[in-house]
Amino acid sequence: MKRPSTIRLLSLTVAISLMILNSGAYGRMLQGAEVTVVGSGVKIEGASAATGATFMSGNRITTDLSSKATLTIGGSRVTVNEDTDATITFDGSSIRVNITCGSISANSAAGITYTVSTSGDTNVFVSSGRIKVNGSNMKENQTQRVTGTATIEATDAASFDVTTALCTCKCLPGIAAPAVTPGPATGLGAVALAALIAGVAVAVIVPVVIINDDNVSEELPGVSVNSF
Asked: What is the domain extent for residue 88?
């Protein structure tokens, strides 16, 4: 006879729990981050994005050289700056930004563990608050350069910038050697040079003049001189 009351009590508890979870900052996190876009070169999961787009935990975001996007996640924010490729995950108590290339500006709220990781040489600047970079403490107005990968963590309110190599710097094609355009050339010299470059034999006709015993000059037929 008491079982229906127990079921109703459990149902009420679950309903209240869901209301709490879906309210406030945690509820907004479950629904996705709020996105504000500047420019037209922002993509979320490969699709063009504009202000008001939905960004879910685990999505990848990229920006071009003239665009950036700000994600508001509960009381925290992450600005994905120009020329950046990053993946962002979040839940009710943490935010994690993995930067493949580019830079982000972070604003962490108190009570949230905010982690940024990079895959190459990294510059970090702290605007306010305190953070840790590979386990070392940093505070307001400090700058640090890390050779190699870096893990940046904030567990209280803080603002900081993390910069790695820009994406375009990592994918520039090799520079081809400039083509040499020969100037105009005429006469035997040009023909011979072209033949020498081609690696073929060259026959050059050379007129020969001989002075005989009577001091009379005679021009003999051309003599063929072969090279190669």
From this structure: 32-170
